[in-house]
Amino acid sequence: MLSGPLAQQIARDTSEVIGYNVLITDDHGIVIGSGDPARVGSFHEASVEVLASQEAAWHSAVEAARLRGVKPGMTLPIVIDGEAVGTVGITGSPRQVRRFGLVVRRQTEILLQESVELRSRLLRERALEELVRDIGSFDADVVDSAFLVARAKELGFDLTVPRTVVIVEVDEPVPAAQADVVAVRPELLRTLRQTFGPRDLVAAMTAGRFAVLPTLRRGRPGMSRQELGEMAVSAIAADYGFVARAGVGGTATGIVGLQEAYADAVDALRLGKECAPGASAYLIDELRSHQVLAAVGYRARARLLSLVAGDLATHSDWPELRDTLIAWCESGFNLVRTADALHIHRNTLIYRLEKVERLTGQPWRDHRATLTLYLACLASQLD
User: Of 20, 66, 69, 72, nearest to 45 (Cα)?
Assistant: First the structure.
């Protein structure tokens, strides 16, 4: 429990404050921290009895001379959770240092307890991060899903209830003079945990990326998966002013489902940033076609675009025509709905569709041909 660096820091700082040399030993009486560095590593015989009795001891110059490695002063036990884990000694006349004894001992115990709690929190954060990584890379041929379920239960999470996966990515702030993402990573974690809830697993994956595995419980009536992603982004923007985005996977129950939802959330974030850069939360349900096209590779997508769109893809207003074709297909080939989605007049829409027909030779009312062109448009968004 007592680490050398921490003991040395406490002994040095306390010695400077009270003006008397302070030393700290481990539970075997070995000095691991001292205002006098020369004493580190030596044996402090008086600590043996103090550790055994958990009672303070005072030693005059005569008494100290009989003990190995001991100078006049007092020695007190360091007790954590009822166990003596070491001692703290103050060198000087027992009458003079007595008034500092209990204060120094208590301060040392408080610092050690805080160190233990900090280490415990760090270990828990690492365990949560490793758990989420293992879920994301789960392979049933390598790991038993029951093992991950048990690990999660030990950490206080039930992975057998319906959940989804939200991957949140936070941008570095501009200007750079603001606090960076790494510096506020613990605060970002706390914000996400407060935004969601104690049953929702939240872990930091990299400096600017976080994973949330929220439960899809009845306590969130009417809240969609899309809204869960937007909620995470809004909380970070409200508390820190950082720009963030979220990719949201599908509904999952069990480890296999969660692994698929994790992969989908990662894909949703990556594809959403390419296809809808102005949005803040991307639902995989709306990007399934992009996901399939991304899987076939760049050469296959480029060939599809060349064969189907031809010269259309090289035209000066290709981005506008592409958005028009995508909206036309996604609005069910309905002129009114498509015009509303694009915020243009119906006649403007017809003009654009007729232009596509002239450039491709495919009638814009031929829905089968248009659907093929729609896939080529989606493919071009990924390059």
Answer: 69
Three-class SS state of 208: coil
Regarding pTM above 0.85, the answer is no
CA pair distance 53, 34, nearest whole angstrom: 23
Asked if residues 170 and 208 have their Cβ atoms less than 8 Å apart, the reply is yes
Q: What is the DSSP code string of 265-334?
A: HHHHHHHHHHH-TT-SEEEGGGGHHHHHHHHT-HHHHHHHHHHHHGGGGGSTTHHHHHHHHHHHHHTTS-
Provide the pLDDT for residue 368.
Answer: 86
Helix (H, G, I), strand (E, B) or coil at 170: strand
Q: Do residues 230 and 246 make contact, with C-beta atoms less than 8 angstroms apart?
A: yes
**So what's the pLDDT on residue 305?**
87
pLDDT at 177: 46
Q: What distance in Å separates the CA atoms of residue 5 and residue 73, rounded to the nearest whole number?
A: 24
Beta bridge partners of 211: 167, 203
- Block mean pLDDT (10 aa), the chain, length 383: 81 90 93 92 94 92 92 91 89 85 83 78 91 93 91 94 95 60 83 93 90 80 84 92 93 94 96 88 93 89 87 87 91 92 92 89 87 90 79
219 secondary structure, DSSP code: T
Structure tokens at 134: 């293992």
Tell which residue, 301, 268, 258, 275, has the closest CA to residue 136.
258
Q: Sheet holding 31-34: strands in order across? A: 31-34, 22-25, 83-91, 73-80, 57-59
Is-contact 382 294, C-beta < 8 A? yes
What count of other Cβ atoms lies within 10 Å of the Cβ of residue 352? Answer: 22
Q: Where does residue 4 rank: exposed (0-12), middle (13-18), buried (19+ CB within 10 A)?
A: middle
Q: Give the per-residue pLDDT at 222.
A: 62
User: Hunting for tokens 């069910």 — which residue is that?
Assistant: 332
Nearest by Cα to 212 from 221, 126, 198: 198
Give me the count of residues in the chain: 383
- CA 328/CA 370 separation, integer angstroms: 9
